[in-house]
Amino acid sequence: MPIEPSIPIACISKEEFHQIDERMMKHAFAIHNQFGRLLDEVVYKRELAERCASAGIAAQCEVGIRVKHGSFVKDYFIDLLLGGSTVIEAKTAKETLAAHKGQGINYLLLADTRHGSLVNFRPSRVDRHFLSTRLTHEASRSFAITETCWPEMRCIQGCGTVWSRFARTSASDSICLFIGMRLPISPSAAETSCR
């Protein structure tokens, strides 16, 4: 599946990221103090990009990444890319949700970089979350199916799952894949072990 950023995006160390992020956050706090918390997200993004650029940090807004698979094409846009490497996802939400963090992690994975920040300007204080992943494009596409050591499963009424397998990514994350079909199971069979 081709993933095509509109500009080159570098993968930097955690230390390099923190240097850029610290400088960016000084501007984020200043913007929040000056403008308050009730403006539209685009105002904060543009102002943050302008202030970072004025401070010598290269800043690009709405950096596109195109994902293709067969006839499917989807464009994603990183809110702000600093120093050609640091993904900043800006929000103006009442509270920061797990979905916001997931969106930021998705951008890190698409950009094949490791570090970024989610910055929410709407709360009474700027709410910032570090985003980080060790997963690379290559690792995210790599897996192996282990056919041994299947866990024994206890069927419960209505479960109907016959067996499971584990897939292990190269990043050592385990994902359990349930493979089987729904079968009518009688109450007496509910305690039968399945494989």
Task: Report on the architecture of this protein.
The structure is a single chain. The protein folds into two domains: 3-139, no CATH class; 142-194, no CATH class. The chain is built from four helices and eleven strands; from the N terminus they run E-H-H-E-E-E-H-E-E-H-E-E-E-E-E. It has helices at residues 14-35, 41-54, 98-111, 137-140, and strands at residues 3-5, 59-69, 72-82, 86-91, 115-120, 127-132, 143-146, 153-154, 163-169, 174-179, 193-194. A six-stranded mixed sheet has the order 1-2-3-4-5-6. Strands 7-9-10 form a three-stranded antiparallel sheet, with no helix packed on it. A two-stranded antiparallel sheet has the order 8-11. A hairpin with a 2-residue loop joins strand 2 (59-69) and strand 3 (72-82). The longest helix is centred in the first third of the chain and has 22 residues, at 14-35. It is globular and about 60 Å long. Mean pLDDT is 83; it is low at 160-195.
Topology (SSEs and partners):
Layout: E1 3-5, H1 14-35, H2 41-54, E2 59-69, E3 72-82, E4 86-91, H3 98-111, E5 115-120, E6 127-132, H4 137-140, E7 143-146, E8 153-154, E9 163-169, E10 174-179, E11 193-194
Parallel strand pairs: 4-5
Antiparallel strand pairs: 1-2, 2-3, 3-4, 5-6, 7-9, 8-11, 9-10
Helix pairs in contact: 1-2
